[in-house]
Amino acid sequence: MQGPRVSNHLFYLSIPPNIFLDVVKCASKSASSVSGWTRVIVEKPFGRDSESSAALTKGLKQYLTEDQIFRIDHYLGKELVENLSVLRFSNLVFEPLWSRQYIRNVQLIFSEDFGTEGRGGYFDSYGIIRDIMQNHLLQILALFAMETPISLEAEDIRNEKVKVLRSMKPLRLEDVVIGQYKSHTKGGITYPGYTEDKTVPKGSLTPTFAAAALFINNARWDGVPFLMKAGKALHTKQAEIRVQFRHVPGNLYKGSFGTDLDRATNELVIRVQPDEGIYLKINNKIPGLGMRLDRSNLNLHYAARYPKEIPDAYERLLLDAIEGERRLFIRSDELDAAWELFTPLLKELEQKRMAPELYPYGSRGPVGAHYLAAKYNVRWGDLGGSEH
């Protein structure tokens, strides 16, 4: 005879933050599983600064234990982000190069080719830094830069990510550029500016674009700029990680590249979306009698190599939550460390009422982002010619 069936309850909260606690309270008290587990997936935003995030965590923990809370960041479920650790830790050609000795800079780039389009109410109270940088891009940075974890167990990986976040230098205002898109007419169509959106308050200073230079104070990454860039209403929709390597010391072939040595450096690009792929830019001799070099891509194009459909990030994360696999979910101390890094900057921007630099809808973003990169002798990798 079969015994009573175990019933497990998984709640997914993709709701406005102001009703989180009420819903969790009701679910916990009235709809918890008696015989199995009860878990709650919480969709961002996890507060809007250190204080509100801590208050939210404290509120959730009145009704749930930490191991019942699954804070979801769908970017961590993306195939290429998942593959980041595999690429690094299971290929001998990459792990020895993963440090300040060989890497000149790392770029984390996120762009959308559309604006708020009538959904400005939510966005305006958060802005691009809270919406994309403090969570998605910072999470990818922590995964990228962490030391080798003891194992692939969730806690071991999350311990290493927390160490990276706690090692980061405080973010300075002079290392940040903010922008906001303005209207632009192209091909006879006028695209409205951010403040022309009826759901956005008039005269809003909320940034729709931000670029920042971050640094990690540890032996592996000392002095390496990690440049982040995120924006709406830009010229393209993409998310990618770019690793620019140092110049070859005493390069025998520098004469074959003319004066632009930057063209001669290797670059590893992990394209998270769209058209997922990994490619490595290498120098190669152009066939012929002369000695002319060009840059070629060693290209792993996912659609060609793996024609099966790539699962959606949410599919993977929902399955993980059901299985109790916590590796790709965010622990409360990890969330605290992320907010500690960004809260002082966000407060300073708001207190000083910093005006964002305007950029046309559909452009490559504010000019200030180029100056920020140039300050650290970096050139944004996504602004070159065609690579694909």
Automatic annotation (TrEMBL):
<dbReference type="InterPro" id="IPR022674">
    <property type="entry name" value="G6P_DH_NAD-bd"/>
</dbReference>
<comment type="pathway">
    <text>Carbohydrate degradation; pentose phosphate pathway; D-ribulose 5-phosphate from D-glucose 6-phosphate (oxidative stage): step 1/3.</text>
</comment>
<comment type="similarity">
    <text>Belongs to the glucose-6-phosphate dehydrogenase family.</text>
</comment>
<dbReference type="GO" id="GO:0004345">
    <property type="term" value="F:glucose-6-phosphate dehydrogenase activity"/>
</dbReference>
<dbReference type="Pfam" id="PF00479">
    <property type="entry name" value="G6PD_N"/>
</dbReference>
<dbReference type="InterPro" id="IPR001282">
    <property type="entry name" value="G6P_DH"/>
</dbReference>
<dbReference type="GO" id="GO:0050661">
    <property type="term" value="F:NADP binding"/>
</dbReference>
<dbReference type="InterPro" id="IPR036291">
    <property type="entry name" value="NAD(P)-bd_dom_sf"/>
</dbReference>
<dbReference type="InterPro" id="IPR022675">
    <property type="entry name" value="G6P_DH_C"/>
</dbReference>
<dbReference type="GO" id="GO:0006006">
    <property type="term" value="P:glucose metabolic process"/>
</dbReference>
<feature type="domain" description="Glucose-6-phosphate dehydrogenase C-terminal">
    <location>
        <begin position="86"/>
        <end position="380"/>
    </location>
</feature>
<dbReference type="GO" id="GO:0009051">
    <property type="term" value="P:pentose-phosphate shunt, oxidative branch"/>
</dbReference>
<keyword id="KW-0119">Carbohydrate metabolism</keyword>
<keyword id="KW-0560">Oxidoreductase</keyword>
<keyword id="KW-0313">Glucose metabolism</keyword>
<keyword id="KW-0521">NADP</keyword>
<dbReference type="Pfam" id="PF02781">
    <property type="entry name" value="G6PD_C"/>
</dbReference>
<protein>
    <recommendedName>
        <fullName>Glucose-6-phosphate 1-dehydrogenase</fullName>
        <ecNumber>1.1.1.49</ecNumber>
    </recommendedName>
</protein>
<dbReference type="InterPro" id="IPR019796">
    <property type="entry name" value="G6P_DH_AS"/>
</dbReference>
<feature type="domain" description="Glucose-6-phosphate dehydrogenase NAD-binding">
    <location>
        <begin position="7"/>
        <end position="83"/>
    </location>
</feature>
<comment type="function">
    <text>Catalyzes the rate-limiting step of the oxidative pentose-phosphate pathway, which represents a route for the dissimilation of carbohydrates besides glycolysis.</text>
</comment>
<dbReference type="GO" id="GO:0009570">
    <property type="term" value="C:chloroplast stroma"/>
</dbReference>
